[in-house]
Prior knowledge:
With 238 residues, the protein is α+β, with helices and mostly antiparallel strands. It folds into two domains: 6-82, Phosphorylase Kinase, domain 1, CATH 3.30.200.20; 85-222, ATP-grasp fold, B domain (D-amino Acid Aminotransferase, Chain A, domain 1), CATH 3.30.470.20. The protein is built from six helices and 14 strands. Strands 8, 9, 10, 11, 12, 13 and 14 form a seven-stranded antiparallel beta sheet that branches. The chain has a five-stranded antiparallel beta sheet with strand order 1-2-3-7-6. The model has no long low-confidence stretch (mean pLDDT 97). Uridine-5'-diphosphate is lined by residues 90, 92, 99-101, 129, 176-178, 199-201, 213.
Amino acid sequence: MKKQEMIYEGKGKKIFSTENERLIIAEFKDDLTAFNAEKKGSQSGKGAINCQISSLIFKLLQSHGIPTHYEETLDATHILCQKVEIIPIEVVVRNVATGSLSKRLGIQEGTILPFSLVEFYYKDDSLGDPIINDEHCKILNITQKQEELEFLKSQARKVNEILKDFFIQKNLKLIDFKLEFGKTKDGNIVLADEISPDSCRFWDKDTNQKLDKDVFRQDLGDLKVAYEEVLNRLTKGL
Ligand code: UDP
């Protein structure tokens, strides 16, 4: 399958059409952005690492019965996916307080939450991706169907359980992560976008060393070294 026209360019990926109207190719870029693109950077090789990590995680989730847009990995930086219409909600799941949750509610970083928290953010850069609830989703006409919102939450919780168990075996604590879902032509809701250290937070199980995009956000060291460490741990023994 070959890339045709670029139909979308985001912060971390380019999306290309293919000869099959139901399939797209996603190319993982080396670019990095944080704080609603106020901070920008690039790290050679980052796209390839995220492509491998995302591929591995999508395969794992599919093997546990979670429908995703992922079809196959084409090469170091490209994956073939079903074409979907992205639902403009960032579904964030949190196990441990940090980032915007700590800032907004004053919960000390590192506090283990009494249960996994699922939040919705409205995917709109011009508004700074504000946090929203189910009623906002309906007012914004993202969906009128409560069952679709419940489905997003229940899928996010299932993904969390699968990934938490998987990562802890790799000596990584899954702190929080962001998911995006899309609707296929047939109207099915599937997990889409990417799942990588750009969209998740991982801390070393023993030292709490940050091995994710916070290395870039907070200038904590060499991002590629951190991402490679995650990839090495995930692929060890495979
Ligand atoms: N996240 C993301 N894209 C965004 C915002 C958040 O992938 O546009 C991820 C982020 O990497 C983290 C989780 O969602 O794993 C929660 O992020 P938070 O709300 O704490 O935001 P931040 O501290 O990045 O502003």
